[in-house]
Amino acid sequence: MCVIEQPGTIVTIPAIVNVDEITDEAPEVKTFYMSFVDPSVGARFTLRSGQFIMCTVFGAGEFAVSLPPSPEHDRFHITVRRVGKVTNALHALRPGDKLGVRGPFGNGFPFADIKGKNIVYVAGGIGLIPLRSSIVHVLQHREDFGRIILLYGARSFADLLYRQNITQWRKTPGFETFITLDRAEPNWDGEVGFVNTLIEKAGVPVDNTVAFVCGPPVMFNSVIGDLLKRGMSEDAIVSTLERQMKCGIGKCQHCAIGRTLVCTDGPVYTYRQIKTLGEVI
Question: Span 211-229, mean pLDDT?
Fold first, then answer.
């Protein structure tokens, strides 16, 4: 895959992919590594961090899912929590089974606009999934950025995603990683408490800084509140809106919020934009 700053080819008819490998990330969460059956389609499939695809589980249905791979030098994969009929069917698949893929869709994170800035990633639980792509991409271009900080919180150690990645990130020079669990555990000697408590401990900078925040509503609101109190601009706080998107191309308008269609105008918005939509995450 190559890095692009403008929209690339969009696969509008489901392309068939083979499920090559499945790994357990956390309870009810699995990662599915895939390859395109037609290599020529895979060669045209270029993505930007923050985009999503529509994934078809044959015989069960289609659903929207964030893309965690970096736009370059990364295996094509999705990470999905089991929550309903279609994702239940997905979790029942085995290596060698087939899926359908449409996309990628959406605007993506503003990679070019954040060069030269400090980057703060704040994730709660599965909120790390949509942020992983940007984290890996930024680390692949480490020299283009200032401080890079990850603040990640989960309910328990078992709920921490991408543990192999986190181990590697912690060894990466210039990448500051802070992990916390909601509650103390017998073999956990790290931070305990909600993820917003890490903001002060990490000494999160405000000037020339962009914060990417993804997680459940309670976590999102507390983190945003603390970042604003530190003096961070509403335009410097970026997140993704999660909505049940049906088509991905703005036709069904199922994801409409006010005057915006999350599938085409988003899913990435600044906090200032989110506030104007009349709906809080």
Answer: 93
What are the phi and psi torsion angles at 199 (to 5°)?
A: -60, -50
More confident residue, 222 or 251: 222
User: What's the CATH fold of domain 11-105?
Assistant: Elongation Factor Tu (Ef-tu); domain 3 (2.40.30)
Task: For residues 201 and 203, give the distance between their C-alpha atoms in angstroms, rounded to a whole number.
Answer: 5
| β-pair partners for 61 | 57
- Determine contact, residues 129/161, Cβ cutoff 8 Å: yes
Quick check: 47 and 136 in contact, CB under 8 A? no
Average pLDDT of the residues in 11-35: 94
**Which two three-digit tokens encode residue 233?**
């601009």
The residues spanned by each domain of the chain are: 11-105, 112-240
Backbone φ and ψ of 126, nearest 5°: -75, 0
As separate numbers, helices (DSSP H) first and strands (DSSP E) second, the chain gives: 8, 15
Fold type of domain 112-240: Rossmann fold (3.40.50)
- Supply angle C-alpha 46, 52, 58, rounded to 5: 100
Q: Omega before 267 cis (within 30°)? A: yes
**Residues 162, 197, 215, 110: is their CA dihedral positive or negative?**
negative
